[in-house]
Amino acid sequence: MSYSNTVFRQMLQMIPQRQFVEAVAASRANRYTKHFTAWNQFIVNFYAQVSGKKSLRDVEAGLRVQQSSWHHLGLKNISRSQLAYVNSRRDSQLFQGLFYRMLDRCLKEAPNHKFRFNCPLRILDSTLVYLCANLFPWARYRETKGALKIHTLLDYQGTIPSFVVITDGRQHELKVARQLDRPLSPDSILVVDKGYMDFEWFHDLHSRRITFVTRAKECLNYQILGQQPHNKDHRLISDQIVRLKVWTSRQRYPGNLRLVTWHDDERDNVYTFMTNNFDLSAKTIAEIYKARWEIEIFFKWIKQNLKIKTFLGTSPKAVMTQIWTALIYYLLLSYIKFQTRYTFPMLHFTRVIREALFLRTDIINLLKLSPARIKLPREPDGQRLLFNSHEFY
Predict the structure, then answer these.
(1) How confident is the model over 50-59, as pLDDT tens digits?
(2) CA-based radius of gyration for the chain
(3) Across residues 328-351, what is the average pLDDT?
(4) With contact defined as beta carbons under 8 Å apart, do 252 and 200 qualify?
(5) 3-state secondary structure of 166
(6) Which of 42, 196, 260, 317 has the fewest C-beta atoms lying within 10 Å of its C-beta?
(7) Rounded to a whole number, what is the largest CA-CA distance in the chain?
């Protein structure tokens, strides 16, 4: 990377631009467009996300101050009316596709998880983003509230979202969970909470050789078949092999299940975990479910530090575009962190980037890391800047 590049341009260089251009050409998203292309739209929305702008007027004013950098970014003109128009009309699936292309690049750099087993560990959950029902009538959730629900499959390896579905707030989690065919490979481990309790779905996971770990409900009716052999651990209360007793439940899940009753010394609580895995130790099962807390931290972080609670537009496409851009920004931060072995908190990283967005310095120097301690970020294979290419204009 050249030291004459701004930090913002260096970040954009890490985005899979060529694949995005191909997707834009295939969808003809730039037809009838003279200047404000899909890539220009992404640049402006990405700038608004990184800099934390609260309104279209703030975005326009902030970019006009940096007009000397427009040539290097590929921008020709910017106005809030242009941005509002394209955000409300251009399909947000373009940016959804860009998110998954960035995800593929990010997964290659993600560190391994701390568990001894080599199986992929995934955590599934959802969170609500509340909206004003008067401004977002298409997302009505309650009589006076609107809401979107972000369903996320978190990859514990690197703590990055590997599958995201955005629905209205009334959509049930299980309906989205049943779509998890592609992201979940055989021999992977899936962690869910009690809200995903559905024995038919659990049986489908089991038939695909996917391990599930969840908490058993207090009303679970079962028959004890035996005990699992276990090492002595004062936190382990019981480790049972059971079979469902209710006829309808047994029809949906005819196989055996394992119930691990565990005492959490930190919170002084007793939990009962349910799984179809009979090989891992009871301690490992308890630690796997404890890892579910990572997705709660992820949801809290993106709500507090990304612009996904206040929006620059009120149309469905504008809202979806902003959310996908925020998630792309999160992946990009993770990508840089993985490659540079950045040890400080992600929040510190975002603050540094925001303050130095248009400085002409290398990101490595910006993070104040010694080159002897890190691996320099690599230019993606075949990647080159396309800002001045005719494909954008």
Answers:
(1) 999 999 999 9
(2) 24
(3) 87
(4) yes
(5) strand
(6) 317
(7) 74
CA 364, CA 371: separation in Å to the nearest integer?
8
Contacts of residue 85, defined as CB under 8 A and 6 or more positions apart, other chains included, come to none
In this structure, what are the phi and psi dihedrals at residue 7, rounded to the nearest 5 degrees?
-60, -40
> Mind listing the pLDDT tens digit for each residue in 25-37?
998 988 877 788 9
CA distances from 116 to 207, 309, 338 (A): 24, 38, 21
Residue 387 has pLDDT above 90, yes or no: no
Which DSSP string do the residues of 54-100 spell out, in sequence order? -SHHHHHHHHHHTGGGHHHHT-----HHHHHHHHHHS-THHHHHHHH
Whether the Cβ atoms of residue 321 and residue 38 lie closer than 8 Å to each other: no
CA distance 238 to 263: 10
Average pLDDT score over the chain: 88
**CB neighbour class for 144 (10 Å; exposed up to 12, middle 13-18, buried from 19):** exposed
Looking at residue 4, its pLDDT comes to 61
Per-residue confidence (pLDDT) for residue 112, from 0 to 100: 81
User: Bigger pLDDT: 4 or 8?
Assistant: 8
The two beta strands, 222-227 and 211-215, are unpaired
Please name each of the domains of the chain with its CATH number.
7-103+313-392 (no CATH), 210-281 (2.20.25)
**CB neighbours of 246 closer than 8 A, spacing ≥ 6?**
221
Tell me the whole-structure pTM to 2 decimals. 0.89
Partners of 155 in beta bridges: 122, 160
